[in-house]
Amino acid sequence: MLKITDRFTRGLLAGIIAGVIAKAYDILAYYLNFSTFRWLDVAGIVIYGRRPLNAGEAVFATLSTWFFHALLGIIFVYLVQRLISSANLFLKGWYFSVISWFLIYAIIILFKIPEISAIPLKTSVSNFIGASIWGLILAAVLYWLEQPLDNT
């Protein structure tokens, strides 16, 4: 096992790894018509003022979502290991992800982002599932990174 003792690095890696897996779900849900937008579309609106128009813009928007996932992973590690505890890590990872999803939705509504301010139920449910996947994978990766090295 890989043991990384630096909290920041653990959160960053766990956030990105969880983000890659959640992104796969997000794109699949979009193309199966379970969702009306991808999170890379949200990132594109923030970065370009509109949804990405070509592959280069979509790739850059996707990378920016992974940086955001990394930031959330870092915040989670510091919250859990400094302020709370690592007990029930999967429950805390899931809850953190769902609260993050809700706050991101609140920001979208408060700022009245016209391209995505009216979110249909299927997209909300799909994004809730994606956030749940992210939070559970985040906790799993953190758990894995924190296991002691086997020196046998």
Describe the structure.
- The protein is 73% helix and 0% strand.
- With 152 residues, it is an all-alpha fold.
- The protein has one domain.
- It is globular, with a radius of gyration of 16 Å.
- The model has no long low-confidence stretch (mean pLDDT 89).
Summarize the helix and strand pattern as letters: HHHHH
Question: Which secondary-structure class do the elements indicate?
Answer: mainly alpha
Radius of gyration, CA atoms, in whole angstroms: 16 Å
- DSSP strand count: 0
- Residues in helices, as a percent range: over 70%
Low-confidence stretches: none
Report mean pLDDT, rounded to a whole number: 89
Largest beta-sheet characterization: none
Instruction: Tell me the overall shape.
Output: globular
Tally the helices: 5
Counted up, domains total 1
Assess the beta-strand content as a share of residues.
under 5%
First and last CA, distance: 12 Å
Overview features:
mainly alpha, 5 helices, 73% helix, 0% strand
Give a brief rundown of this model.
This protein has 152 residues and is an all-alpha fold. 73% of the residues lie in helices and 0% in strands. The N and C termini lie close together (12 Å).
